[in-house]
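Worked example

This section walks through a single chain of length 264. The input is the sequence exactly as stored; nothing has been trimmed or padded.
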Amino acid sequence: MAEYEDNPAGRLRTLLIELHRAAPNTPAWDAVARLLVPEAPPSSPEALRAITRLLELPADIRAAVAALDEDDEEKEHLLEHLDKVETFLTYVANRNTNLQSAFQVLSIGGDVPNSAAVQSLGTCSRRLHRYSPEAVIPLEEVDALVQSVTTLMDDIRASSLEQAAKLLLLHHLHRLLQALDLIRITGAAPVEESLDAFFGAVSRNPEVMQDAGRHGFAERLAGIANVIRTAFDIARGVRQFGTETHAVIEQGTNAIEQARHLLP
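Given that input, the structure is written out below as C-alpha coordinates.
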Protein backbone atom coordinates (compact mmCIF):
# COMPACT_ATOMS: atom_id res chain seq x y z
CA MET A 1 0.00 0.00 0.00
CA ALA A 2 1.33 3.42 -1.00
CA GLU A 3 2.57 5.68 1.79
CA TYR A 4 2.94 9.45 1.57
CA GLU A 5 4.99 12.21 3.15
CA ASP A 6 2.95 15.17 1.92
CA ASN A 7 1.24 15.55 5.29
CA PRO A 8 2.31 15.56 8.97
CA ALA A 9 0.97 12.06 9.73
CA GLY A 10 2.95 10.56 6.87
CA ARG A 11 6.14 12.36 7.87
CA LEU A 12 5.85 11.24 11.48
CA ARG A 13 5.15 7.66 10.42
CA THR A 14 8.28 7.60 8.24
CA LEU A 15 10.44 9.07 11.00
CA LEU A 16 9.21 6.51 13.55
CA ILE A 17 9.98 3.62 11.21
CA GLU A 18 13.45 4.97 10.42
CA LEU A 19 14.10 5.59 14.10
CA HIS A 20 13.13 1.99 14.87
CA ARG A 21 16.18 0.87 12.88
CA ALA A 22 18.56 2.64 15.29
CA ALA A 23 20.44 0.80 18.04
CA PRO A 24 17.82 0.02 20.74
CA ASN A 25 20.08 0.77 23.72
CA THR A 26 20.91 4.25 22.44
CA PRO A 27 19.49 7.17 24.46
CA ALA A 28 16.26 8.11 22.69
CA TRP A 29 17.25 11.79 22.47
CA ASP A 30 20.59 10.95 20.83
CA ALA A 31 18.98 8.55 18.35
CA VAL A 32 16.41 11.11 17.26
CA ALA A 33 19.01 13.87 17.02
CA ARG A 34 21.25 11.72 14.81
CA LEU A 35 18.31 10.94 12.55
CA LEU A 36 17.10 14.52 12.21
CA VAL A 37 20.39 16.46 12.19
CA PRO A 38 23.17 13.94 11.56
CA GLU A 39 25.77 16.67 11.03
CA ALA A 40 25.25 18.23 14.49
CA PRO A 41 25.99 16.88 18.01
CA PRO A 42 22.92 15.68 20.00
CA SER A 43 23.42 18.55 22.49
CA SER A 44 23.60 21.24 19.79
CA PRO A 45 21.04 24.02 19.29
CA GLU A 46 20.24 22.46 15.90
CA ALA A 47 19.28 19.18 17.56
CA LEU A 48 17.21 20.96 20.19
CA ARG A 49 15.37 22.93 17.51
CA ALA A 50 14.69 19.78 15.45
CA ILE A 51 13.42 17.74 18.40
CA THR A 52 11.27 20.63 19.62
CA ARG A 53 9.66 20.79 16.19
CA LEU A 54 9.21 17.02 16.17
CA LEU A 55 7.28 17.26 19.44
CA GLU A 56 4.86 19.61 17.70
CA LEU A 57 3.97 17.16 14.92
CA PRO A 58 1.00 15.56 16.75
CA ALA A 59 -0.54 19.03 17.10
CA ASP A 60 -0.02 19.54 13.35
CA ILE A 61 -1.78 16.23 12.70
CA ARG A 62 -4.73 17.18 14.91
CA ALA A 63 -5.06 20.51 13.10
CA ALA A 64 -4.91 18.86 9.68
CA VAL A 65 -7.56 16.28 10.63
CA ALA A 66 -9.77 18.98 12.18
CA ALA A 67 -9.78 20.77 8.82
CA LEU A 68 -11.06 17.69 6.95
CA ASP A 69 -14.67 17.57 5.82
CA GLU A 70 -15.41 14.52 7.94
CA ASP A 71 -17.80 13.84 10.81
CA ASP A 72 -16.48 13.86 14.36
CA GLU A 73 -16.59 10.07 14.66
CA GLU A 74 -14.35 9.59 11.61
CA LYS A 75 -11.92 12.25 12.87
CA GLU A 76 -11.71 10.45 16.21
CA HIS A 77 -10.94 7.23 14.33
CA LEU A 78 -8.10 8.89 12.41
CA LEU A 79 -6.57 10.14 15.68
CA GLU A 80 -7.35 6.99 17.67
CA HIS A 81 -3.77 6.06 18.62
CA LEU A 82 -2.09 9.44 18.40
CA ASP A 83 -1.94 9.73 22.20
CA LYS A 84 0.48 6.76 22.25
CA VAL A 85 2.75 8.57 19.79
CA GLU A 86 2.62 11.69 21.96
CA THR A 87 3.61 9.62 25.00
CA PHE A 88 6.52 8.14 23.03
CA LEU A 89 7.69 11.64 22.11
CA THR A 90 7.64 12.73 25.76
CA TYR A 91 10.05 9.85 26.47
CA VAL A 92 12.26 11.09 23.64
CA ALA A 93 12.47 14.47 25.36
CA ASN A 94 13.80 12.73 28.50
CA ARG A 95 17.53 12.27 28.00
CA ASN A 96 17.62 9.42 30.53
CA THR A 97 15.36 7.12 28.49
CA ASN A 98 16.83 4.69 25.98
CA LEU A 99 15.15 4.07 22.66
CA GLN A 100 14.02 0.53 23.42
CA SER A 101 12.17 1.64 26.57
CA ALA A 102 10.52 4.52 24.73
CA PHE A 103 9.26 2.23 21.96
CA GLN A 104 7.51 -0.01 24.51
CA VAL A 105 4.77 2.61 24.52
CA LEU A 106 4.03 1.85 20.87
CA SER A 107 4.64 -1.89 20.83
CA ILE A 108 5.41 -4.12 23.79
CA GLY A 109 6.59 -6.85 21.44
CA GLY A 110 8.91 -4.52 19.58
CA ASP A 111 7.18 -4.70 16.18
CA VAL A 112 6.88 -0.92 15.89
CA PRO A 113 6.20 -0.70 12.10
CA ASN A 114 3.15 -2.95 12.52
CA SER A 115 1.97 -1.40 15.77
CA ALA A 116 -1.52 0.06 15.99
CA ALA A 117 -0.08 3.56 16.43
CA VAL A 118 2.07 3.45 13.29
CA GLN A 119 -0.67 1.76 11.25
CA SER A 120 -3.09 4.44 12.39
CA LEU A 121 -0.67 7.14 11.25
CA GLY A 122 -0.61 5.45 7.84
CA THR A 123 -4.41 5.50 7.61
CA CYS A 124 -4.48 9.15 8.64
CA SER A 125 -1.73 9.97 6.15
CA ARG A 126 -3.58 8.40 3.23
CA ARG A 127 -6.71 10.38 4.10
CA LEU A 128 -4.78 13.65 4.32
CA HIS A 129 -2.96 12.84 1.08
CA ARG A 130 -6.27 12.38 -0.67
CA TYR A 131 -7.97 15.54 0.55
CA SER A 132 -5.26 18.03 1.60
CA PRO A 133 -1.81 17.08 0.26
CA GLU A 134 1.06 19.52 0.77
CA ALA A 135 3.74 20.43 -1.74
CA VAL A 136 6.79 18.17 -1.66
CA ILE A 137 10.33 19.06 -2.69
CA PRO A 138 12.26 15.87 -3.62
CA LEU A 139 15.05 15.15 -1.13
CA GLU A 140 17.72 15.27 -3.83
CA GLU A 141 16.59 18.80 -4.66
CA VAL A 142 16.59 19.68 -0.96
CA ASP A 143 20.21 18.50 -0.68
CA ALA A 144 21.17 20.59 -3.72
CA LEU A 145 19.36 23.63 -2.31
CA VAL A 146 21.11 23.27 1.06
CA GLN A 147 24.46 23.17 -0.72
CA SER A 148 23.58 26.18 -2.90
CA VAL A 149 22.33 28.26 0.03
CA THR A 150 25.32 27.35 2.22
CA THR A 151 27.82 28.23 -0.51
CA LEU A 152 26.01 31.48 -1.28
CA MET A 153 26.06 32.50 2.38
CA ASP A 154 29.79 31.83 2.57
CA ASP A 155 30.39 33.94 -0.55
CA ILE A 156 28.23 36.78 0.75
CA ARG A 157 30.15 36.83 4.05
CA ALA A 158 33.42 37.09 2.14
CA SER A 159 32.14 39.74 -0.28
CA SER A 160 32.41 43.54 -0.22
CA LEU A 161 28.65 44.03 -0.12
CA GLU A 162 27.35 46.93 1.93
CA GLN A 163 26.99 45.78 5.54
CA ALA A 164 23.24 46.41 5.64
CA ALA A 165 22.70 44.40 2.46
CA LYS A 166 24.93 41.62 3.71
CA LEU A 167 23.06 41.34 7.02
CA LEU A 168 19.64 41.31 5.37
CA LEU A 169 20.59 38.64 2.83
CA LEU A 170 22.31 36.45 5.39
CA HIS A 171 19.38 36.73 7.81
CA HIS A 172 16.85 35.51 5.26
CA LEU A 173 19.11 32.89 3.75
CA HIS A 174 19.70 31.53 7.25
CA ARG A 175 15.92 31.28 7.77
CA LEU A 176 15.62 29.48 4.43
CA LEU A 177 18.42 27.09 5.40
CA GLN A 178 16.72 26.30 8.72
CA ALA A 179 13.46 25.55 6.90
CA LEU A 180 15.30 23.24 4.49
CA ASP A 181 17.07 21.48 7.37
CA LEU A 182 13.72 20.75 9.07
CA ILE A 183 11.80 19.81 5.93
CA ARG A 184 11.54 16.13 6.88
CA ILE A 185 9.60 17.19 9.99
CA THR A 186 7.70 20.30 8.95
CA GLY A 187 7.23 19.69 5.24
CA ALA A 188 7.88 22.30 2.58
CA ALA A 189 5.46 25.03 3.69
CA PRO A 190 8.03 26.84 5.92
CA VAL A 191 10.44 26.85 2.97
CA GLU A 192 7.95 28.78 0.87
CA GLU A 193 7.12 31.05 3.82
CA SER A 194 10.79 31.92 4.33
CA LEU A 195 11.11 32.65 0.61
CA ASP A 196 8.06 34.92 0.70
CA ALA A 197 9.51 36.75 3.72
CA PHE A 198 12.76 37.22 1.82
CA PHE A 199 11.02 38.72 -1.22
CA GLY A 200 8.96 40.96 1.04
CA ALA A 201 12.10 42.30 2.70
CA VAL A 202 13.79 42.85 -0.67
CA SER A 203 10.77 44.69 -2.08
CA ARG A 204 11.01 47.12 0.84
CA ASN A 205 14.77 47.50 0.30
CA PRO A 206 15.34 47.48 -3.50
CA GLU A 207 18.86 48.82 -3.08
CA VAL A 208 19.82 45.48 -1.52
CA MET A 209 19.12 43.57 -4.73
CA GLN A 210 20.85 46.26 -6.76
CA ASP A 211 23.95 45.81 -4.61
CA ALA A 212 23.62 42.02 -4.81
CA GLY A 213 23.31 42.27 -8.60
CA ARG A 214 26.49 44.28 -8.88
CA HIS A 215 28.33 41.53 -6.99
CA GLY A 216 26.84 38.70 -9.07
CA PHE A 217 24.55 37.35 -6.34
CA ALA A 218 21.15 38.27 -7.78
CA GLU A 219 21.21 35.54 -10.41
CA ARG A 220 22.16 32.90 -7.85
CA LEU A 221 19.37 34.03 -5.53
CA ALA A 222 16.91 33.86 -8.43
CA GLY A 223 18.09 30.34 -9.26
CA ILE A 224 17.41 29.14 -5.72
CA ALA A 225 14.00 30.81 -5.72
CA ASN A 226 13.09 29.26 -9.08
CA VAL A 227 13.81 25.72 -7.87
CA ILE A 228 11.53 26.25 -4.86
CA ARG A 229 8.79 27.99 -6.83
CA THR A 230 8.82 25.27 -9.49
CA ALA A 231 8.35 22.55 -6.87
CA PHE A 232 5.32 24.34 -5.46
CA ASP A 233 3.88 25.12 -8.89
CA ILE A 234 4.15 21.46 -9.87
CA ALA A 235 2.51 20.36 -6.62
CA ARG A 236 -0.35 22.80 -7.05
CA GLY A 237 -0.79 21.76 -10.67
CA VAL A 238 -1.01 18.09 -9.73
CA ARG A 239 -3.47 18.89 -6.93
CA GLN A 240 -5.64 20.96 -9.28
CA PHE A 241 -5.54 18.21 -11.90
CA GLY A 242 -6.63 15.68 -9.31
CA THR A 243 -9.50 17.90 -8.14
CA GLU A 244 -10.69 18.51 -11.71
CA THR A 245 -10.41 14.82 -12.59
CA HIS A 246 -12.46 13.90 -9.51
CA ALA A 247 -15.11 16.45 -10.54
CA VAL A 248 -15.27 15.05 -14.09
CA ILE A 249 -15.67 11.50 -12.75
CA GLU A 250 -18.49 12.63 -10.48
CA GLN A 251 -20.23 14.44 -13.35
CA GLY A 252 -19.91 11.34 -15.54
CA THR A 253 -21.31 9.12 -12.81
CA ASN A 254 -24.28 11.44 -12.30
CA ALA A 255 -24.94 11.55 -16.05
CA ILE A 256 -24.93 7.74 -16.24
CA GLU A 257 -27.36 7.52 -13.33
CA GLN A 258 -29.71 10.05 -14.94
CA ALA A 259 -29.57 8.27 -18.28
CA ARG A 260 -30.33 4.95 -16.61
CA HIS A 261 -33.60 6.35 -15.25
CA LEU A 262 -34.62 7.36 -18.76
CA LEU A 263 -34.16 3.85 -20.17
CA PRO A 264 -37.34 1.77 -20.61
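What to look for: The longest helix spans residues 218-262.
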